[in-house]
Amino acid sequence: MTYPHPILAREGWPFIAASVLLSVILWALAGFWWSLPLWLLTIFVVQFFRDPARPIPREPLAVLSPADGRIVAIAQAFDPYAQREALKISVFMNVFNVHSNRAPVDGHLRDVQYFPGKFLNADLDKASEQNERNALVIDCEGRVVTAVQVAGLIARRILCYVKSGETLRRGQRFGFIRFGSRVDVYLPLDAQSRVSIGDKVYASSTVLADFAA
What we know:
By secondary structure, the protein is of the alpha+beta class. It has 3 helices and 16 strands. The chain has helices at 13-30, 32-48, 127-130; strands at residues 7-8, 50-51, 62-64, 69-79, 84-93, 100-102, 107-115, 133-140, 143-151, 158-160, 167-168, 173-177, 181-187, 192-193, 200-201, 207-210. The longest helix is centred in the N-terminal third of the chain and has 18 residues, at 13-30.
């Protein structure tokens, strides 16, 4: 599904409306200074649910970041969703990052797998195996890319809007995770990483890696 990027994610509209309404009511009943904490909360909620449009690189072998955040892992690992050895790159999202998730490549969505689990700190490696998560296995012209939405310590809601059998376009908005989380990307072993541990990345506009030619 396409998304028109209305600046503020639709997932946040009820939260933003409720926060503004409560702030206005408390201001009217008790004055501005009593309502100030609620207005500060409103500012936080608005920044959390921002969802800006992003430029999408068109390099044919590029794999794009599916999320905003910081690179916390780059290593060879077993991909349990596609049953293969892979290059794993993990992006950690804190509460100040944009939490809209976007497709890293063009391709056919071969499988979508949801797993209930714990809510450990998403910055920890074991969160990839123990936390609630949702995996998308994408076939990109014979190359398999797996993108895994992982819930975090505060994140308690993974949203995914695509189904097995659909076709994805790079940069397409496919989901959202509320309040801090992680996205793991599993790539073919011969893919070449273009990021390093600690790098800041941006959904759709940062190239994580290149497929082998």
